[in-house]
Amino acid sequence: MPKVRVGDINMYYEIHGRGFPLVMIMGAGASKDRWSPNVIKQLSKHFKILIFDNRGVGRTDVPEGKYTVRTMADDVVGLMDALKIAQAHVLGVSLGGVIAQELVLNYPERVNKLVLMSTFCGGPHAIQSPPEFFEKVVRLIDKVSKGEHEEAARVFASWLFSDDYMKNNPDVVEKFVARYLIVPVTQAGIMGQMAAAQSFDTYDRLPQITKPTLIMHGKDDATIPVGNAEILAERIPEAELVIYDNTQHGMLLQVEEDWLKRAIEFLKR
């Protein structure tokens, strides 16, 4: 399995396809296995895609100590350096979108275009998640700490999908659970990543993003409310905003074909 030393950790990565690089950053508690095979197949037809496990998840190291979004953005740039990727498009989902914001703000010369999915700016200006979400976080950490990984995966699924969606689309849920279980998250990893997500704020710096930016979000997202996408679109100059009706935080899976089409069209302009 390909790994490379980046700062204080060994990072697992994969490269698929050929063409201009596209760096894809996953969300909290998610290894690279959460990208569906179809997403990898479709995007690798157009780009050289780099997928990897962030610090704290998957096959990448789970270091002790505090995680910050800045550190995780530095990890991505360090990985790009190690792989001799001078510049790339960057696509980030949820926490991955948070990391992508920090990356483009600190290393603008490394980014060509930016795609932000189901994410937020953090800090006091962000629209906070409802109390029910934090109850699910506590349940997830409890299941992970007990080694009850399938139960943890199903709690995780409830972050992404409504009860009705899960009832009506059991195949999607089971595929999600199966991908999660390939390399289950650890307690230290998920707590480190969640703490990083709660301690960052890009609101005041968002107007500094000058790269073409596409923002996509589910209208019914109960984990990161859709108003956060509107804040990003208002603050990032000339950003494009797409909001999907009847879609939750699991937008990545729920509207896979449509967001892929939009992202490819945007990145290839």
Q: What would your notes on this structure say?
A:
The chain has 269 residues and is of the alpha/beta class. The chain is 42% helix and 17% strand. The protein is built from eleven helices and eight strands. Helix 2 packs across helix 3 (95-106), helix 4 (131-145) runs antiparallel to helix 5 and helix 5 packs across helix 7. The termini are far apart. The mean pLDDT is 97.
Summarize the structure.
It contains 11 helices and 8 strands. It is α/β, with parallel strands linked by helices and 269 residues long.
Uncertain segments:
none
What is the 3D shape? globular
The CATH homologous superfamily corresponds to Alpha/Beta hydrolase fold, catalytic domain
CATH architecture: 3-Layer(aba) Sandwich
| Total of helices | 11
Summarize model confidence as the mean pLDDT. 97
Please report the first level of CATH classification, the CATH class. Alpha Beta
User: Helix coverage percent of residues?
Assistant: 40-55%
Quickly count the domains.
1
Oligomeric status of the shown chains?
single chain
What do we call the CATH topology? Answer: Rossmann fold
Largest sheet entry: 8 strands, mixed
Radius of gyration of CA atoms, rounded to a whole number = 17 Å
The SS-based structural class is: alpha/beta
Q: Report the β-strand fraction as a percent range.
A: 15-25%
Number of strands: 8
Strand order of the largest sheet: 1-2-4-3-5-6-7-8
Head-to-tail CA distance between termini: 34 Å
Order of helices and strands: EEEHEHEHEHHHHHEHEHH
